[in-house]
Specification:
- It contains six helices and 14 strands.
- The protein has 250 residues and is α+β, with helices and mostly antiparallel strands.
- It has two domains: 79 residues, Immunoglobulin-like (Sandwich); 129 residues, Ferric Hydroxamate Uptake Protein, Chain A, domain 1, CATH 2.170.130.10.
- The protein has a five-stranded mixed β-sheet with strand order 8-13-14-11-12.
- The N terminus is likely disordered.
């Protein structure tokens, strides 16, 4: 009887050990199945570019984005092997879409070079046609400077804004708090200002979510209804202020 029981138990133990051996690599693989994409963003002289925004735009749905360190380096976790597209932006540099074919050998050696935008070129970008498109902004600035704050491209560049909300840091009555999505939440007397983008109302949105500093041609901020142009009055948010954003592409 004892010998028969031993004969039956030994295969069972061997089988269990084999199962554990087969499962263990899979469990180890799952524990490490969060591949990283690492690299550096530099300028044309190979100097590192800090605080560049690097985000994954392909494959869709990943939604990963980081800012480079002061050494220009970045790490994005959870990026699969294969075809990947990165969007890289930094104020004062030309934005880039970089297409990569990631392998295990290349995912830790990505170098992205950004070209600076010459100041003369930036000035040239404000062509007569664009000035015409920004006619409303310049009219408001001439007529309502006592009621609002106005920021054009030169103001944005001079302040080195990472996010549009950075333009509001020195305005009395405005508070900023970190957003769980991107950038900051802008609040006036504890409530959310009404946002308009190129003349279109964008309710329940944060300015940092809909536009980047490099895309802004002009921005107006009215802290109350006083002085707010009639087409942009919204009595439901009259105590919260109004933000008008005019982009370069309108």
């Amino acid at each position: 009887m004892f010998l028969r029981m031993l004969y039956v138990c030994l295969p069972a133990i061997a089988t269990a050990a084999a199962v554990r051996a087969a499962v263990a690599p899979t469990e180890t693989h799952r524990a490490t199945a969060s591949p990283e994409l690492a690299g550096i963003v530099v300028d044309i002289s190979s100097a590192p570019i800090p605080e560049a925004e690097v985000s994954v735009v392909k494959p869709p749905g990943i939604g990963k984005g980081v800012l480079t360190s002061k050494e220009g380096r970045f790490v994005i976790r959870g990026v699969p092997t294969g075809a990947v597209s990165l969007q890289v932006r930094r104020l004062g540099y030309e934005a880039r879409i970089v297409d990569l074919q990631l392998t295990d050998a290349t995912r830790n050696a990505v170098e992205i070079v950004l070209k600076p935008v010459p100041e003369e070129l930036e000035a040239m970008l404000i062509s007569a046609e664009e000035k015409s498109a920004l006619r409303e902004f310049y009219e408001h600035k001439a007529q309502r400077s006592g009621y609002a704050k106005f920021f054009d491209q030169k103001d944005i560049k001079r302040r080195g804004a990472r996010f549009p909300s950075d333009l509001f840091r020195s305005i009395p009555g405005v508070t900023l708090s970190a957003s769980t999505f991107s950038g900051n939440l802008v609040r006036v007397r504890g409530c959310q200002p009404m946002l308009w983008l190129d003349g279109q109302r964008v309710p329940n949105s944060e300015v940092d979510e809909v536009v980047s500093p490099g895309d802004i041609a002009g921005l107006e901020f009215y802290s109350s209804m006083a002085g707010t142009p009639a087409p942009y009055l919204d009595r439901s948010t009259r105590a919260c202020g109004t933000i008008l954003v005019w982009t370069k592409n309108r």
